[in-house]
Design goal:
Radius of gyration of chain A: 23 Å
Number of helices of chain B: 5
Strand content of chain A: under 5%
Strand content of chain B: 15-25%
Helix content of chain A: over 70%
Number of strands of chain B: 5
Order of helices and strands of chain A: HHHHHHHHHHHHHHHHHH
Distance between the termini of chain B: 25 Å
Structural class of chain A: mainly alpha
Oligomer: heterodimer
Strand order of the largest sheet of chain B: 3-2-1-4-5
Shape of chain B: globular
Order of helices and strands of chain B: HHEEEEHHEH
Number of helices of chain A: 18
Amino acid sequence: MNSLTRLKKVLKLRTIVATGAGLAFCSSTFVAQVQVAGFVAGESAWLAILISGFMCLLAAMCFSELNGQLPSAAGIRLYFVRAFGDKAGLSVSLLYMAVIMGVIGAESYIIANILHEVLPAVPPLIWVLLMITAVTVINIRGIKLAGGFQDALTYGMLLSLLLMAFLAFTTYEVTFTSLIMPGSIDGLINAVALGIFLFVGFEWVTPLAEEVTDSSFIARGMMTAIGVLSISYALFTVAMTSTVPKDILVASPIPHFIFAETVLGRGGAVWVLILSLAATFTTFNAGLISVSRFMYASARENILPKIFSKISMRFLTPWVSIATLFVIAVTLSVIILITGRYLILVNMAAAMESVVYAMAALAVIVLRKREPHADRPYLVKGGALIPALTFLIFGGLAAAVLTTETRAAFYIALGFLLCFAYVITVVPYLKKQQVSKTSARRRKRRRPSRAVEAPEADGLVKK
Amino acid sequence: MATHQEIKESLETFCKNYNKNDKLRVMNKDWDRVVLVKATDIDSEHTLELKNGVVVLKEGASDNPEMTVISDSETLADLFYGDITPTEPYMNGTLKILGTEEDILRLDFVSLMIWGE
């Protein structure tokens, strides 16, 4: 981009890293960390986390190439539609958005449990309602987290993780052999597959491409975020499992709370509560922003009913989409609070994320063939090797999760079928309805050179 | 392929409709923005300056735009004449809008207010 087209409002690399890491970091990641640890022997979870992080780096390279070629807030939807066509691209995007909403359900359960531990007089449901209502109001009013606030929040959270891990290591002993013996290869594969969940959302930073001066910032930001997260997660997980017996952590929805209380007493518990609240708040906020904007754009394109494109005249935000998501989030959270089955959502998100990363890698290969001369400011080096490897790795990891967690596999398959059925039946109907409405209104096109073409185009016969 | 003149006329139509829409003028009275409109297939650049709820069209590029609308000349002319909505070309990558997410949403809303669905 030349200097003439440079934007006034720009984001710095520091903020891109903070946003990428902040999107991935949520309260559910603590649960996923101990689940990863549960699959491997001793204190070797760090190994699985670093491998997962490295694999996500490969996916980040693919996302960087796609984002450089197609810088748009439409993100994965645009990449997949371009590479795989409307039906497959749309179906996967719809399902992906649904799974993101599922993560909000899991988050609610975890944060409500922590808050209930600290203030048992208030029922968990009240906390969930308060949190989701607060984020919904903020979204409807169009209040956005300032870059500086996002920076402070994310770096503060990461620093807290490292500090707590350091304090645990100075008090509790870790044996070297327990660190390097992960046990069975099956366990390690499952741990790596679930470890992908720890990085879920780093790629949501790609819509910011339109707010940065240098598109390479997005690539560097994503990769730095993954690196920082990998190290923080690895150290914190080892600290947790070397302090509290693994079976206690694995069975709890609030392992980080138990850990902090063990190491630092009540003060540690409050610290982790604040940490968790901040992490959940940013996740809710990011989830609501991404999904509501996706719904708005889809409604404008007649993929979803028109009502979802309604905008608040006062705040200029898609209030119907946001309000609908509020209802969905509360319903999901209540279901999870009643059933306690939050882990299935974590597994579904891990599997879905692997599917999306595998598809992104495949999209790189397909688009290179289909659009060989397109401008690619970031090109993954080594020809098709890295995208092909990324596709195989994430395809394999998705298969590993789905074969282990058959219930998650069933829901994902069912979700995909429903989305696909919607795309091939409801979407054409909505589009047809809109075409007949528009052609009735716009018999004549406004552009003078096109005005004479319009009647035939609309199927009208000239007299 | 549309000509530079056609893009200019489409932008003039857009500005005329924008400025005569009282609701839009009130709603956007605090939304002061410089928008660069740039064609990819022909040499054509225009600047839309929004200030105090009024939009003014200028020939050529601005030094420091807050938003940049980039597309082929056909899409730009159709878009500013209101013959197509921005969403579809934006979602399929034909239309690129560089700017903040709020500004992109507002621009889409402006087009909705002027041209309808």
